[in-house]
# Entry
Amino acid sequence: MEVAFGVLGPVTAWDGAGDAIALKGPRHRAVLARLIVARGRVVPVTRLVDDLWEEPPAGAVGAVRTFVAALRRALEPDRPPRAPARLLVTEGPGYALRAGADAVDAWRFEHAVTAAAALPPHDGLARLEEALGWWRGPAYAEFADQDWVRAERSRLAELRLHAAERRAEALLALGRAAEVVPDLDAHAAGHPWREDAWRLLALALYRSGRQGDALAVLRRARTLLVDELGVDPGPALRRLETDILRQADHLDSPVRGSAERVWAEATAAYDRAVASGARARLESTTGLLRDLAVTGGGGPRAAGEHRVAAVEAAEELGDAELTARVIGAFDVPAIWTRSDDPGQAARIVAAAGRTLAALAPDHPAAGHPAAGHEAARARLLATIALESRGDRSGHGRRAARQAEEIARRLGDPALLAFALSGLFMQTFHRTGLAARRDEIGAELVELSARHGLVTFEVLGRLIRMQARSALADFTAADAHAAEAEHLAVRHERPLVGVFTTWYRALRLDASGRATLEETEAAYRQAAARLDGAGMPGMERGLLPLALLCLRLRHGQPPPDVGHAGWGPYAPWAGPVVLLARDRRAEAAEALRALPEPPPDLLTEALWCLAARAALTLGDRATMERAHAALLPAAGELAGAGSGVLTLGPVSAHLDDLAAALNRPTGVAPSRS
# Structure
């Protein structure tokens, strides 16, 4: 029996036939709701007791166990006696709900809203309307006054409002402006501080031929914001008012002028002309996914998932050359060195390796090694280099060098740009390579500008922004950031702003001209740009790490972050945080178990954190390791090569280590 749970309204559960499951009393439902809020994490019994009662009775723990037993019987009525529970499990000090990703309506709703952002308007509208239909009332309706659910209720309510606005946006994109006006009018009236609601309502009125009403709505919004909040409307509302007054062409319905119409007609024509099983569909799909991957929102995630599916479909056809084209056509560069989905990356690398073997000169499928064949091999090798980020084996570096060699020999600018992007991703095998990355970025900028390769020119600018930051040349880094932003606006590359916003926070930090509070606010603003950007490999743990580095340099205590909040940086943050809490024995144990930092943009910063803890604890072995690892980066700012944070000059950390080890600081060796 598959059980589903509903929290978008009163808390309930349904069996596999869709019938409601009797959950007994309110405290039984409260236990279930509390476990759903925890999203699969264990909730200790003591926490459940505190959440269920303001003043727990003497038998509160036993009562919770009784509630859990009753819930288990209700949720798994066919479970044999003494068989372990499958859904509501006991683990450690408490309980967890092991529900599938689609078992809770709130989780499905969140996924649907994210997925809709990557779909064309018609499909996105259908997805949003279905998802909004799952709401039966306020989330966790009967527990509105409970502290433990307040944040989750607020988050879901905000997501619901966001979904309603994106539904309206989809209707506008489909030319159905008049239809959406009543809903938007009620939405704006009910949520008067949401500027996007007023913007969409005014735009819908204008496209319905009601220019005067549209202007009146914008002026009503202005009055509310100024009189009630004391703030002026944001740039989007101000710009819309100006555009309406001058009747700007871009405000017209997209179906009447209409990129949407052209897209719809071209798609329909393609569907009529190209058979559903044709190989051309796979190659065409890869082109679309390449564009989707740089859109932000749900685009990168959707592109990754569909890319893997396209590659696997090509392999199933048994055509190595087709598979090579499908893999190699996704020439989307990357600037961040931690993969968003290591599992997907590993599958792509494996498929590229198999395809390379099939295209080898002595393989029956290979044919003659003509220029086209060699170009396909170079694209496969560059793909391996890109997707093998963080690889310690040297396989990715070898692939990058081979791709570069082939591309230079063939004289193909686009192929060389792709190969250089893979080479960049493989320049983290040791510290102190910012100057080498700057050389790669400079060649990418020059090559791409000469041949109109906008995506790779943006990459080159961002690489140089990072590298010049590592070398403390912020004047040059500023210029590259500004040029990257200019290209991003001109060519619709929204993800660029994520990196340049982080860079500006780092710039403020490194300048020393702002207070701790002002710099923290800049970092938090940068982290907000990551929300919904579709880059979990960058998002997880980055803000706490940046704040930790900032506070350490200012002699302030670390941010109050739980272990999970540090994400992949927990092993290196842990000893420093434990020392700040005067838990030396635990810090020493964590430091002894500390792995070598991954080879990426933050290697130097993580080694400096390890060095700082080792100096405090007198851990000579770790000091030796850190000194040897950091020596090649003696002329760089620790962490600044990431473009997101810094722990100050590496040389200062080396001086401290050298003094503790009673040796000269030394000079960075010159090695590649």
In short: The first helix runs from residue 26 to 37.
